[in-house]
Amino acid sequence: METRIKKFGEVGIKDVGSVGGKNASLGEMYNELTSKGVRIPNGFATTSFAFWEFLKKNDIQTQIENILNELDKNAYSNLEDIGKRTRDLILGATISSNFKEEIISEYTTLCGKELKEVAVRSSATAEDLPDASFAGQHDTYLNIKGNDALIQTVKKCFASLYTNRALKYREDKGFKHHDVALSVGVQLMVRADKGCSGVGFTIDPESGFENIMLLSGVWGLGENIVQGVVTPDEFYIFKPSLAQGYYPIVQKNMGDKKLTMVYANEKEKTTIVNIKTTKKKQLRFVLSDNEIIELSRWAKIIEDHYKKPMDIEWAKDGITDEMFITQARPETVHQTGSKKLIIEYTLLKKGQLLSQGNAVGSKISIGKAQLLKSPRNVGILPVDTIIVTDTLTPDWDPLLKQVAGIVTNKGGRTSHAAIVARELGVPAIVGCGNATRAIAEGEDITISCAEGNVGYIYQGKGTYSKKEINFSNIKTPKTEAKLILANPDSAFQLSQYPNSGVGLLRMEFIITHHVKVHPMALVKFNKITDNSIQKEIKKITETYPDKEDYFVDKLSQGIATIAAAFYPKEVIVRLSDFKTNEYANLIGGKDFEPHEENPMLGFRGAARYYSDLYKEGFALECKAIKRVREQMGLTNLKVMVPFCRTIEEGKKVLTVMEENGLKRGVNNLEIYTMVELPSNVILAEQFAEIFDGFSIGSNDLTQLTLGIDRDSELLMNLFDENNEAPKQFIKMAIQSAKKTNTKIGLCGEAPSDYPEFASFLVNEGIDSISFNPDALLQGIENINKAEKQMANKNMVHG
C-alpha cells in the first residue's frame, strides 16, 4: 500500500522516486553515517504519492496542465503570469483531513514533549528521472513551529514546484512538468540562528581539483550564504593529509559577514530576519580549527559513502555547540578524473580597472553592463549583456542562461549565483562590494576570470586570445618538466597541466601580495618611526593577537596552497630573495633596510638569514615552512637557499634553520641551494656535501659571469644566457652534480625561448628544467625534440 509519509529512518538513496533526491539523501545519511559520527537532524518526508493524491482530490491536475500549455516557450514573455496562476491554484486547494492528521502525528512524534521549530524543505522527484538535479529550484522554509503553520508550509512547498525558475529549468532540460512531483522534508531545526552555518564542496568548485575541499560559513542561518547576501568565511582543507591525522587547513579567508540571519519575533510576519553582525563577530572566523577539521572529516565520510564529489550544507547549534549536516547532494559541475582538454583564455589588452571580486570560471567576456535591481519584468536581454547587480537569488535563474556575464556586489564562491554560473558556463565575478557604484549603466566592460581566483572588471572592450589545449597529445619527456610558480591563486588550475612538480616556488610574491608587511616590522613593531605605518599594520593584523603569527599564518597558507596543488610531486620553495630596495617597499620596511647603491650584489640571499638585521624575520619564514610540513602534512615541500656565496655561509644558514626547527634529513626534509654564482660552480662538489640538490638560476649566473647588472638598460643587449661563458659554467655544474650523485635542475626562460638551449641541457644530462606557466608547453616540446635528436644520434653512433 502506498504511504503518504516516511520517516528518515525508513528511506535511503533507492527512494529518490518517492521522496526526491534531497530527502532520499538525508535518509541515506541518517541510516548509514550516524554510526560513523556524522550528525544528521532527524525528520520525515511526504511522498510523491501524497502529492499526486493532493492534486487529484482537489481536482486541479488538468487545470494545471491547461495553464502550463499556455506558456510561451520561445520568449517566456508570460512566465511570471503562468507561474503565479499555477501556484495560486495549489495555495487555494485543501489538504485532506487524513493527510493533515498524518503530518501532525509525525510532527508530534518528532518533537517529543513540546512542539519545536522545524526546517521544511522541498525535494523534487521524478519517477522516470532518478538522476535529475533540481537544486535551488524550489523553496525552503526555516523556523516553522506549530501544526497550522506546518500544514500551510507543506502547501507552499507543493506550490514551489511551479516557481518561475523551476518551470524554466524543466523546459530547458526537456522534462515534462507532469512527470515531476514534490516531496516535503520536515527536519528538526538546528539552532544555527545562535551559531553559524554554511556549505561545503568536497572538491575545489572552481578548478575541480579533487584533493581540496572548500567549506564556507556565516553567522546565523545559512540562507545568507546561498542567496549571496554576505561574503562568507572560506576554509580550504587538503584531503590526503586529513586522512593521515594532520591539520591541513591550507587556507583561511575571512569574509565580511555583515548580516546574521536569525529567527524573527512572533510579532513579525516573517519567520526569519537579518540583523547587523557586531564588529567583534565580523572579525572572528565562524569555526575554530578543531571544528573545521571535524566538519572536513564528516564531508570526507559523506564523499566516500557516495563515491563521488559532494555539495553539503552544515549548521552549528549555538546552544549545544554541536554541528550537523543538513543536506548533501552530488556536485554537478566537474566530472571526476584528470582533464585532458582545456581552453586557456589570455587577456591581451585591458582598460582601467573598475572593480574586482571572486572569479567564477576561467573565461573572459566582453559586453554591455546592465544594472538591474530585480529579475522581474526584464524580458529578453541582448546576448552581450553583462548583468551587474547587488546579489543574485534563485529568482534570477531564468535570465542567466542568456547573458554574457554576471557581476555582483555580494556573495562568495559557494553562493547560488556562483554555483549556477558554473553550471551554465557563464563567467561571473561575485562579492565585488562596489560593482553597482563603479560600473555605469550601458558602458562596455570586459570581465576577466582568467587571472586566478580574483576576477577583474575592466572599462571598455578589451582583447583576448582563446586557445584549446589537448594534454593527451603531449608526450612526457624523460627530463622532468617543472613549473616556476609564485601565485597560489592559480595553483589548482595549473596542477592539471603536464608537469613533474614545482622547481621554483617564489616566496616573494606571497610576501608582497598576501603578507604585505616587512617581517621585522612585526617583530620590532615598536621601533617603527612612522605612526601612520603603525596604524596601517595594526589594521592589517587586527584579527591576530600576535603580530608575528600573522606573518607565519599568511605565508604558510600561500606556500601550502601550492604544495597541496602538486602533492605528492616535489615543490621547492626558495627562501625570500628580495633585494634591500624591494624589502624596503614592504609596509614598515624602510625602518629596517639599509640603503645600497647596487642592491643586486648587496645584502641579499643567504647573507641575510644569519645577520642580526634579519635573523628574527628569517625565523618567521622557517616557522611558516615548518607549519606547512609538520602541521599540514605537506612533506613534499623542499627548501632552497638562494645566493649562497661560500661553503661557510651555507653552513651558517643550515645552523640557523636547524635552530628554527628545519633540520636537513629530519622528516625527509631536503634542502637545496641555487647555483647562480661562479663560486657555486667552482666549489659545486663541496656544496654538494652540505645540500641535497642544486637549481641553476640562469639569470643571475649569466649576469655574474659576464659582469652585467641585468637591471641595467644600457647593458641589456649584452645579457645572453646562450653565451658560451655561462654555458660552460652550467656544463661544469651538471658534471659536478653527476659526479656527486646530486640532483640538479635549471630555472629560466632560455630553454623555452631557445630550442638549442634546451637541447644543450638535455645533452648534458640535466635532471629537470623549470618553466613559467605560459612557457611550459613550449618547453616540453623543446625537451621532447632534443631527446628525440639525442636518441637518433645515439642510434647512428650505436
TrEMBL record:
<dbReference type="GO" id="GO:0008986">
    <property type="term" value="F:pyruvate, water dikinase activity"/>
</dbReference>
<dbReference type="Pfam" id="PF00391">
    <property type="entry name" value="PEP-utilizers"/>
</dbReference>
<keyword id="KW-0418">Kinase</keyword>
<comment type="pathway">
    <text>Carbohydrate biosynthesis; gluconeogenesis.</text>
</comment>
<dbReference type="InterPro" id="IPR018274">
    <property type="entry name" value="PEP_util_AS"/>
</dbReference>
<dbReference type="InterPro" id="IPR002192">
    <property type="entry name" value="PPDK_AMP/ATP-bd"/>
</dbReference>
<keyword id="KW-0808">Transferase</keyword>
<dbReference type="GO" id="GO:0005524">
    <property type="term" value="F:ATP binding"/>
</dbReference>
<dbReference type="InterPro" id="IPR040442">
    <property type="entry name" value="Pyrv_kinase-like_dom_sf"/>
</dbReference>
<comment type="similarity">
    <text>Belongs to the PEP-utilizing enzyme family.</text>
</comment>
<dbReference type="InterPro" id="IPR006319">
    <property type="entry name" value="PEP_synth"/>
</dbReference>
<feature type="domain" description="Pyruvate phosphate dikinase AMP/ATP-binding">
    <location>
        <begin position="18"/>
        <end position="340"/>
    </location>
</feature>
<dbReference type="Pfam" id="PF01326">
    <property type="entry name" value="PPDK_N"/>
</dbReference>
<keyword id="KW-0067">ATP-binding</keyword>
<feature type="domain" description="PEP-utilising enzyme mobile">
    <location>
        <begin position="384"/>
        <end position="452"/>
    </location>
</feature>
<dbReference type="Pfam" id="PF02896">
    <property type="entry name" value="PEP-utilizers_C"/>
</dbReference>
<feature type="domain" description="PEP-utilising enzyme C-terminal">
    <location>
        <begin position="486"/>
        <end position="778"/>
    </location>
</feature>
<dbReference type="InterPro" id="IPR023151">
    <property type="entry name" value="PEP_util_CS"/>
</dbReference>
<dbReference type="GO" id="GO:0046872">
    <property type="term" value="F:metal ion binding"/>
</dbReference>
<dbReference type="InterPro" id="IPR013815">
    <property type="entry name" value="ATP_grasp_subdomain_1"/>
</dbReference>
<comment type="function">
    <text>Catalyzes the phosphorylation of pyruvate to phosphoenolpyruvate.</text>
</comment>
<dbReference type="InterPro" id="IPR008279">
    <property type="entry name" value="PEP-util_enz_mobile_dom"/>
</dbReference>
<dbReference type="InterPro" id="IPR015813">
    <property type="entry name" value="Pyrv/PenolPyrv_kinase-like_dom"/>
</dbReference>
<keyword id="KW-0479">Metal-binding</keyword>
<protein>
    <recommendedName>
        <fullName>Phosphoenolpyruvate synthase</fullName>
        <ecNumber>2.7.9.2</ecNumber>
    </recommendedName>
</protein>
<dbReference type="InterPro" id="IPR036637">
    <property type="entry name" value="Phosphohistidine_dom_sf"/>
</dbReference>
<keyword id="KW-0547">Nucleotide-binding</keyword>
<dbReference type="InterPro" id="IPR000121">
    <property type="entry name" value="PEP_util_C"/>
</dbReference>
<keyword id="KW-0460">Magnesium</keyword>
